[in-house]
Design a protein that fits this description.
globular, 6-stranded mixed β-sheet, single chain
Length: 514
Amino acid sequence: MTEAQDDVRLVHVSKTFPGTRALRDVSFSIRPGEIHALVGQNGSGKSTLIKILCGFHEPDEGSEVYVRGERIEPHRAAEAARRLGLRFVHQGLGLIDELDAVDNIALAGAYETGFARHIEWRSQTRRSRELLARVGVAMDVRCPVGECDAVERTAVAIARALADLPPGQGTLVLDEPTVALTPGESERLFAIIRDLAQSGISILYVSHYLDEIFAIGDRLTVLRNGQRVATHTVEEITKHQLVTEMVGQELGQSSAAVYRGSAGAEPILAATGLAGRELRGVSLELFPGEILGIAGALGSGRSELPLALVGATPLDEGAVSVNGVAWKRPSPHAMAALGVALVPADRRQKGSVSEFSVSENLSLGNLGSLRRLGRVDRGAEATFVEGWLRELDVRPPEPHRSFQTLSGGNQQKVVLAKWLGVDPHVLVLDEPSSGVDVGARATIYEILRERAAAGLGVLVCSSDTAELAELATRVLVLRNGIVGAELVGEGINEAAILGAIEGTGEPITFAGAA
């Protein structure tokens, strides 16, 4: 196949940073109308490759990038990429929430103006509706995008990216587009992406979620340690083979063992009748050594529950008990004193101090035990930090490295280590593998299983049904703010969880704590 037959073609692309070879001799192509997935662990080179395509990074000498047959000169890559139809929608979308779709779309290009250069609002509004219709979305274009649902927001970002291109032309790079979406919302977005591809637009789709790759991709390219491992059609590779290529070794086909507990065991954590913004009377029990999964759609109370359990959001009704000690108005300080730790969903804003080093973030939760004569004992801190970096396989294992320079998976390992380091009785995790690659995810799962086997009570709230099916020993499914179903043992699988979320199963009555 010649360069002219491909929308995008990379030939021997490499990129070296001081002390790091981020990409090494990467070659693959994207065909017209193709959905081409780019997969790999954090640190595999995906982000660097995208930044080369958009002209943010200049590749090493000898690298070649062709767009529609034209070779891109590195020093003019940004201008040439745009002229030749390369468009990007990044994970954060880059929208201004206070502005409507009309303004968000126009700000990326230009407003239509008339007499005395006044904005032609009627024409501008019509144009915005046409662009959104091109991506298959009908919405109120005058509504502030911060009030729109997640799919509409993504559609605005896509429409904006393609606004200056003829219909059916261009290459769209989508970077982790479903991170903030529910399964139902993801399916809506997939329909938009498929329609764009059928119109002739080529798609480079970057995602950590392998199920998405098999649901939407035509071909996929695997990166590992900055090198291309292989390019496949989706039909010719299994998920297990793909994971093996991404990680570089065989992974065991682990499945959750059923926690049966001890006869007469008392719950380590119990909640009774929790009611708040979304919760409408949730009761549950968590036993030592158990990994309890919490599933539910957006608005079910799944996102509010972990905050309620640790006292980070106010309750209208209900109580939380830890080892028999009950609190009607739990506070984070009280729950921490009782041995309850939370790993929040937003690790960058809520779970860490991004300006701090890895060492400073990891030791934050344990400063009391590391203090000697009123000051932190640096030797004790170094021993503590280095031990946890080894145990969770944080890469690179550099304590003084800036936390914000780590990949998402390694940031999550540091946040997890911080709270495991306080030796809690209960660990509550909210979306523990969001934006985390398959290798880091396997490490986190292994650590959680080991800690549960040693008696830790683990509660995992997740929108990832595959994660809950693999990890949890019991799953509670929330619907409309209450516990709608309980799945145990062999009854835990993705289909059962999804069915319970959608309400196809029978509701259950759960007595909860006395």
